[in-house]
Amino acid sequence: MQQKINKSYSFYSNDLNKVKYDLLYDKALKIRDYKNEISEFVCKNPIKFFNLSKFDWINVFRRRMDNCNNQDISNAISDTYVAYENKITTFNRKIKSKVQSGFKKTLYKKNGKHYKKDDIKSFEPIFKETKLTKVVSYLAKFYDDKFIEFLKENKNDNTLRIDALYYVEKYGDRLIDLILLKQKNTIDKITKHPIKFVSLTFTSCTEQKENIINQNKNKQSIFNCVISLSGQNREKGKLYIPIKYSRKHHGNLKDYYKTFNSKGQRVISYKISFYKKRIRIILTRLGIDETVKNKSNYYGVDVNVKHNLFSDKYGNFIDYDRDIFNDYISFLKRMDEKKKRKDSNILSKKDNIKFNNFKVIIKDMLKRKCNALVKQAISLNKNHIVMEDLQHMAKSFARNNEFEGFKYSRLIRLLNLADLKNIVKSIANKHNIQVTFVQPHYTSKACDQCGRIHDDNRKTQENFECVSCGNKANADTHSAKMIEDRLHLDVLRKSLLVLKDGLYSPNKLKKEAIKSILVECYDING
Ligand SMILES: [Zn+2]
């Protein structure tokens, strides 16, 4: 099945009149300067901004600027945030405190020229987390002069906040000094050189009736097409940019046309950059998806709702951003209570805005997590991600299973986890990694040692223990392996999946048929 996806194409204009050129140039300059202004500001207040989401940055830095619309400003802020993501990740990693609990000793296994068998090869310190190191990490991440007050007012029944207050009370300034030193040591290196934006590039968006590209009416011109952009700071707001269009390279003109939205407008986003005296305009068009195929270094990934969003069979985990996740859950709970009180399903306007904001934040988080997953696959030399078909994931949970009072099926819907399928696929394919979705049946309940499938193999969310052979494993790691096996093992790949044009899709089988294939496979192999 061929899928259509957006692809970017560049158009150049090297002969634009000065008024039009200056208009765009001036805008690019202003946006670049603003990004640098934000960058400097963030580095002066890193504790605050490294703990905020992209969405928060947009709220804080949103402002009016001549010649720029709201979307231009949001894009500029969002680009700046994205540029800072690596620094934010480094901050979150380095701000953590751990204590040394001992050494791991490695010995030589054979005699060598300069050593004998059982001589010490290396000493590696082993670190562990304690209640106190957790508090130190937490305070170092968030502490400013208002933070203790915030803790006192918002401790509720949050254990970490209560522990933090306890230690601050106990050790007083000595602890605070330690925290400040830790912050300084971590922050100084990261913020010493604020990111400097040099290139004159901006992304923008226009709503217009006219198509983005049209044939040039002036047939004598060497530029056979014209790009039209509305909403510019000039008479009638329109800007026409003549460009050379090559059907062979750029494809069918109609593929760049967007359909009308409910307001009778076409919403078009574009990117502009400058190089020497040339303007480059980047547009997206619907193109044939060049889906990655024929890859065979399989990487099984288990998706979880309650803990660790992604797990693999090696014990690597990628978790949700817990702060965002928990905020969302408590927001949803409050909304449920409100609805119950008012005996109505309709949210107030304000709550509805909040709800929509959360949806954006959650989707943004899922995208970041998928990016991390793809990076992890690459670092493990894998080129084929295997996951359960998430659309059916809700069904794999027992009907009464709940998390903080939410039915799993509802939670999956509220987190929009069905979306993950497309997000993972599009990010993975960009990095030349294939993705296959397999049937979710029995991935958590089948034993890979003896083939026994039983509900009691998974008595808790966390642990797998086979009722027949006693095989024990971490439940997530075990599921990830079982998912990977569906492609890795010839017999499963051939019977559970259909291969067409280098891509796999689940074979339409009854549950019972899947069950007997699995039992037979692991009974022989186990
Ligand atoms: Zn077993």
Question: Keywords, please?
Answer:
526 residues; alpha+beta; four-stranded antiparallel sheet; three-stranded antiparallel sheet; 16 helices; binds zinc ion
Q: Could you describe the 3D structure shown?
A:
With 526 residues, the chain is an alpha+beta fold. The protein contains 16 helices and 21 strands. The strands form eight sheets. It has a four-stranded antiparallel β-sheet with strand order 1-9-8-4. The chain has a three-stranded antiparallel β-sheet with strand order 5-6-7, with no helix packed on it. A three-stranded parallel β-sheet has the order 10-14-17, with helices on both faces. A hairpin with a 2-residue loop joins strand 8 and strand 9 (278-288). The relative contact order is 0.09. The model has no long low-confidence stretch (mean pLDDT 88). Zinc ion is lined by residues 447, 449-450, 452, 466, 468-469, 471.
Quick gist of this model?
Helix content is 43%, strand content 20%. With 526 residues, the protein is an alpha+beta fold. The radius of gyration is 28 Å and the shape is globular.
Most strands sheet: 4 strands, antiparallel
**What's the mean pLDDT score?**
88
- Give the oligomer, counting copies of the same chain as homo and different chains as hetero: single chain
Segments where pLDDT lies below 50 for 5+ residues? none
End-to-end distance: 36 Å
Biggest sheet strand line-up: 1-9-8-4
Range of helix content: 40-55%
Alpha plus pi helix count: 16
DSSP, total strands: 21
Overall 3D form: globular
- Structural class call reads alpha+beta
Q: What small ligands are held by the chains?
A: zinc ion
Strand-residue fraction? 15-25%
- Mind telling me the C-alpha Rg? 28 Å
